[in-house]
Amino acid sequence: MADSRTILTLDAGGTTFSFHAIRNQQEASAPLVLPSHADDLGACLSTLVDGFNRQKQIVGGPIAAISFAFPGPADYARGIIGDLQNLPAFRGGVAVGPFLEDAFGVPVYINNDGDLFTYGEALFGILPKINELLASSGSPKCFRNLLGLTLGTGFGAGVVTEGHLLRGDNSAAAEIWCLRNKLDRNSYAEEGVSIRAIRQAYAVASGMNYEQAPDPREIAEIAAGTRPGNVGAAKDAYTRMGEVAGDAAANAVTMVDGIVVIGGGLAGASEFFLQSMVEEMNRDLASVTGRGNVPRMELKVFNLEEPTQLQTFLKGQVTTILVPGAHRRHIAYDPMKRIGVAVTRLGTARAVALGAYAYAIAELDRQNVCPAQIIS
Prior knowledge:
Low-confidence stretches: 370-376
Strand content: 15-25%
Radius of gyration: 22 Å
Mean pLDDT: 92
C-alpha cells in the first residue's frame, strides 16, 4: 500500500503526545513528543494543533489527512471524545475531530488504539506473514480475519474482517474488557488481564500488599529466574492472566473465526501466559445431560510462537479430492479448522501508527469514489 500522500498521526498518552508523519508506510520525520496537559482542555487542544503543525512544517508539502488513536469513550465516527480517565480535561463531549478539521482543512479520523493496532497488523504485520508461511508450505489455507488484543494498563481489542475495520454502531465494537472474568464471575475480564491483575495476583500469592508488588516486567524476570522473588507466584500470576485472556478470546473469536494477535505492554512476557491462554481456548465444555464433553470452539487453536505447534498449524491436513463429474480433475482440500495465537511482529506502537495511516488512505480513496460505485 505504498502511497506518496502524507498522513499525520498521534500516539496519545495521559502525560505525553507523540506526533508522527507517515508517507509510503514509513516515518517521514522523527517523532515529536510534547506534554499532553491532561488537566487543561485549552492547553491540550493547543498542543494538538502545535504538534501537528510542527510535523507538517518538518515534512514539508501538503498533508492529506490526520489520523490517530485516542482513548474512549468516544463517538469515533464523528470525532467526539467523551469523559476520559487519563485525560480529565475531556468532559461532556469534546469535538476534537471537527476542531482539527477546522484548524487544518483536511479530513480527521480518530479510532481506538486497539482497533488501529489490529488494522495495522492485518495489513502489514501478522496476517500477511502467516499467509506467506502457509503459501510457502503448500497450504491452500488463507486467513482474512484478525482479532487483535492489547494487554497493558487495560485489556483492549479490535476486529478486522476481509480488510475492513469493525467499528460498530456506537464506536463500541470489540470492547473485550467488559466480558466476564472467568476466575471472578462478578468481575470483568480486564480485572484479570492487565498490569494491575498481574501485580494483584503476585501480591496475594506472596502475602504482600498490592502497593508492595513489583511491576509486571520485574515479575516476568522473577518467573524467568533472573531476579530474586517468589518464582511460583510470578509464574502463577501470568498463568492466571492467560486463562482469563483465553476465556475472553474464545468468546470473541467464536464470532470472528480468525487469527489472534497480541500486543501491548505485557506482550513481551508472552512466554509466561501464551500457552495457558491457548489451552483455555482449546478447553472442552461439559454437556448438562451427561452426553460427554464438546470442544469449546469448532476451531483448534495453536500457539504460533511454539515451533512444533507452528509447523502443525502450517501443515494442516491437506489432501486432494476429485471433482465430481470432472475427468481426472483434483483440488486441494484441508479439513482442519484452525486458528493461531501470535505476538505482534510490528510492535504495538508501529502497528497503531501504520493502522492509522492505512485507515486514512482507505477512507480518502473511498470518498473519492462516486457513490453509485460503492456497493454497501
